[in-house]
């Protein structure tokens, strides 16, 4: 059962990171005309790998007594990175609206696919439990 919950927890962390990245991309799109705004993004793969690190991963909480609470809730800390502009605007804005929209749509599809995968796993477990 522990392996099962670990896998679902991993997908839950992925959903949290995808939601956080969606917020960052939406902020980039909203600030496309803001002078001096620097486009930001999250290195999703690196942040997820850090969040799923082993028991000795940096920043990982470790229970040293049986009464300690297990860390839950909240999205893993994602470092925001500034994107290098391919064609910076004269006003210093580095948002490439086409790139941001494409990233936004791709991220939304990844989020939806992860939700569907989790739902499918839960349905399979319920079916196995009820014997149907």
Structure description:
The chain contains 3 helices and 2 strands. The protein is mainly α. The protein has a two-stranded antiparallel ribbon. Its main location: other.
Shape from CA axes? elongated
Biggest beta-sheet profile:
2 strands, antiparallel
How large, in whole angstroms, is the Cα Rg? 19 Å
Our estimate of the beta-strand percent is: under 5%
Tally of separate domains: 1
Structural class by SSE content: mainly alpha
**Topology order in helix (H) and strand (E) letters:** HEHEH
Domain Flagellar basal body rod protein N-terminal: 8-38
Subunit structure: The basal body constitutes a major portion of the flagellar organelle and consists of a number of rings mounted on a central rod.
InterPro entries: Flag_bb_rod_N, Flagellar_basal_body_rod_CS, FlgB
Function: Structural component of flagellum, the bacterial motility apparatus. Part of the rod structure of flagellar basal body.
Which properties best describe this structure?
two-stranded antiparallel sheet; bacterial flagellum; Flagellar_basal_body_rod_CS; 54% helix; cilium; 132 residues; 2 strands; mainly alpha; Flagellar basal body rod protein FlgB
């Amino acid at each position: 059962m522990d392996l099962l919950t670990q896998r679902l927890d991993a997908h839950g962390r992925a959903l949290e990171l995808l939601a956080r990245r969606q917020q960052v991309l939406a902020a980039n799109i909203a600030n496309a005309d803001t002078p001096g705004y620097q486009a930001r993004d999250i290195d999703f793969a690196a942040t997820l790998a850090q969040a799923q690190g082993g028991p000795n991963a940096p920043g990982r909480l470790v229970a040293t007594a049986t009464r300690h609470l297990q860390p839950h809730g909240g999205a893993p800390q994602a470092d925001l990175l500034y994107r290098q502009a391919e064609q910076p605007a004269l006003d210093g804005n580095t948002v490439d609206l086409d790139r941001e929209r494409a990233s936004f749509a791709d991220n939304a599809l990844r989020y939806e696919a992860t939700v569907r995968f989790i739902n499918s796993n839960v349905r399979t477990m319920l079916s196995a439990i009820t014997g149907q």
